[in-house]
Automatic annotation (TrEMBL):
Entries under NCBIfam families matching the protein: shape_MreD
Pfam families for this protein: MreD
Membrane association type: Multi-pass membrane protein
InterPro entries: Cell_shape_determining_MreD (IPR007227)
Protein name: Rod shape-determining protein MreD
Source superkingdom: Bacteria
The species this protein was found in: Metalysinibacillus saudimassiliensis
Sequence similarity: Belongs to the MreD family.
The keyword Glycosyltransferase is assigned to this record: no
Gene Ontology terms describing biological process: regulation of cell shape
Gene: mreD
């Protein structure tokens, strides 16, 4: 029971934290604006699908996708479809690859790239963005990948530290 609460509480916390990091964006260097889009919740759900439960991750992704559509986007259903689809894709890929922290992190970054590209394509198709492909890659996609890469590194370090602390505790109990 406590694990379920912790899974949901972490997802809620990440959902609430993402907009705070989005306020750091855009950053201006010289005359260029760089947009950082945090996808912390999606990274968490990919890790959840890989190491815990694909079904639970997809349900949580659907729920928070709907919330994301309601609060942040004017198009209902876009994130509600894309979050579970990305989580499903992650679980399919991880079914063929032996999951570890590096592989899961790499898959998460590739899937964030796919998500951002699909969103860019959709917004271009319906005319909500006039940004061409080249500026999209330089000013939005690469900074987004960099921000989420830093987040993954921090999460991995915390995760490894927690595992090491548990191992040390177990060793102390056996001595």
């Amino acid at each position: 029971m406590m694990q379920r609460v912790a899974v949901i509480a972490t997802a809620v916390l990440l959902f609430l934290i993402e907009p705070n990091f989005a306020f750091l964006s855009p950053l201006q260097f010289d005359t260029t604006l760089y947009y950082f889009v945090p996808r912390f919740l999606l990274v968490y759900l990919i890790f959840l699908a890989t190491y815990h439960s694909k079904k639970r991750a997809m349900y949580i992704g659907l729920f928070f996708g709907i919330l994301y559509d309601i609060f942040y986007v004017d198009i209902i259903g876009l994130y509600a479809f894309l979050y579970p689809a990305i989580i499903f894709l992650a679980s399919v890929v991880m079914g063929y690859i032996r999951p570890n922290m590096v592989v899961t992190s790499t898959v998460a970054l590739v899937l964030i790239t796919i998500l951002e590209s699909v969103l860019y394509g959709f917004y271009s198709f319906i005319g909500l963005t006039a940004m061409t492909w080249q500026p999209f890659i330089q000013e939005r996609l690469l900074p987004t990948i960099a921000m989420n890469f830093l987040f993954i590194i921090l999460v991995a370090i915390i995760f490894v530290n927690l595992i090491n602390a548990k191992l040390l505790r177990d060793e102390m109990n056996t001595v």
